[in-house]
Amino acid sequence: MSTAFEGKVVAITGAGKGLGRAYALHFAALGASVVVNNRRHAGEVESSADRVVGEIASAGGKAVANYSAVEHPEAGGSLLAAALENFGRFDCLIANAGITEGKSFRKQSLQELREVLEVNLMGTINVVHPAFCHLCEQKSGSVVVSTSSAGLFGEFGLPAYSTSKAGLIGLMRSLSLEAAPKNVQVNAIAPYAATQMTEDHLSTEIGAAMDPQRVAPVVEWLASGAVSGEVLLAGGGKVARARMQTSRVMSASDLLGDDEQQLQRIVIDQEFESAGENFQQFAAAFGNRGNS
Questions:
Q1: Which domains does the chain have, with CATH numbers?
Q2: CA dihedral 156, 161, 164, 165 (to 10 degrees)
Q3: What are phi and psi of 242, to 5 degrees?
Q4: Contacts of residue 167, Cβ cutoff 8 Å, sequence gap at least 6
Q5: Is 192 a catalytic residue?
Q6: Phi and psi for 68 in degrees, rounded to 5?
Q7: Helix%, strand%, coil% for the chain, nearest 5
């Protein structure tokens, strides 16, 4: 059976285990050739990336391992080169690699905070930049970045993680606008899954329902070119759409000084495609006084 990804080439970071492994196996089963990225770890006899490549090959698929650590600036070029040198083309990037933390902001050093940002935010930028440039030049392809509900709503004990994942939503939205004339789609997935990163926090029942493989079809759809600029939360075969919204523009005197209950009664239902569009609503509210 033919699929939209048959004959395509997909690169996936953090694909040695967990969600990344599930994505790699899924896209390979669709007929895609897969660049399986995962850093080497000290003492490994066989890297996790090599094991996933072996799984794909055993099932009759095509894959090659890449061992670049995403926080290194050259990682993106290495990933793109692996796709072009081994398969002759490049069609899609799933930027999945990331790490978490487990301390409040006050209990972390700046270096500890920076390490999470370097992997999750700058690591994603490192791999997205060359891939995005290549896809825009060829005028086809897609990028999916991995954000989180922590990036949407924040979470206690995850200050750098929440910051990095929120930053990726801004990156995705900006790139989706830039890529629109180039026939390139950019989206974000906020996954819920039982992985090494989350399994200690999930009950046995919930963990059993949250197999990473149940997120993979949603990532496939986001990578298919059907939409751009979207954030989908997904897990356990369920999905939800997330969007940034505001209330209508009102006079500051109507709000400032009111209590929290008054604030909570304000309806948040305004949606914008870009920061510029949001500014236009503000400009319309104060008319010609906007430049004064």
A1: 9-243 (3.40.50.720), 246-291 (no CATH)
A2: -80
A3: -120, 140
A4: 121, 151
A5: no
A6: -65, 140
A7: 50, 15, 35
Active-site choice (23, 67, 161, 192): 161
Can you give the pLDDT of all 292 residues of the chain as single tens digits?
457 999 999 999 999 999 999 999 999 999 999 999 999 887 777 899 999 999 999 999 999 999 999 999 999 999 999 999 999 999 999 999 999 988 999 999 999 999 999 999 999 999 999 999 999 999 999 999 999 999 999 999 999 999 999 999 999 999 999 999 999 999 999 999 876 666 566 556 666 677 899 999 999 999 999 999 999 999 999 999 999 999 888 877 777 666 677 778 888 999 999 999 998 888 888 764 544 3
Encoded tokens for 101: 């933390």
